[in-house]
Specification:
The complex is a heterodimer.
Chain A: E1 3-5, E2 10-14, E3 19-21, E4 24-26, E5 32-39, E6 46-52, E7 60-61, E8 64-69, E9 74-79, E10 88-96, E11 101-103, E12 107-112
Parallel strand pairs in A: 2-12
Antiparallel strand pairs in A: 1-4, 3-9, 5-6, 5-10, 7-8, 8-9, 10-11, 10-12
Chain B: E1 4-7, E2 10-13, E3 19-25, E4 32-37, E5 43-49, E6 56-57, E7 65-67, E8 73-78, E9 87-94, E10 99-101, E11 105-109
Parallel strand pairs in B: 2-11
Antiparallel strand pairs in B: 1-3, 3-8, 4-5, 4-9, 5-6, 7-8, 9-10, 9-11
The chains are: A mainly beta, B mainly beta.
Chain lengths: 113, 110
Amino acid sequence: AQTVTQSQPEMSVQEAETVTLSCTYDTSESNYYLFWYKQPPSRQMILVIRQEAYKQQNATENRFSVNFQKAAKSFSLKISDSQLGDTAMYFCAYYTNAGKSTFGDGTTLTVKP
Amino acid sequence: NAGVTQTPKFRVLKTGQSMTLLCAQDMNHEYMYWYRQDPGMGLRLIHYSVGEGTTAKGEVPDGYNVSRLKKQNFLLGLESAAPSQTSVYFCAIKTGYGYTFGSGTRLTVV
């Protein structure tokens, strides 16, 4: 069975600083996708960044980047220059080519002014 | 959210009542999903579909049924609602880049 673990239920960071959210997963598959989603208080699920397991290069989207360690099954999210609008719950998710998905329980991030 | 529409947005049911949630996409994607999100938790997959006329069970399928008669629509049914089904329900589609979610349905079963 696939599992996704986010070991930090809550985190906080000062505005303009950098924060890293952790995610580990367990799978026996070799080809899969990993995602980070942001869920602000509006409840909307917003895709932040994605990583294909076959790619060694870490994905980057503006201030958001990942550290993908396939052998260690680790997929952390780094947010640089944190902004107040980054305050949200962040979910790590794992998807297979067959269409199944598994989400972590989330990390609540608060950006303080 | 653009492209994925869920109806209704809110609903209160009595125990034992039935209802159907509708997810509609205005694109032509094959994969559609239904999730539930309980307080303080991530999304758990209920059922999904890989194309018109197909459905498959996810992680927590008990108490739910689904149908995909038309490619654009994915319906989630509760035949006999229970308080344990109080949750926020999300529909999603798989696009070329990732997954796009609807805005959610808050369901309360009393």
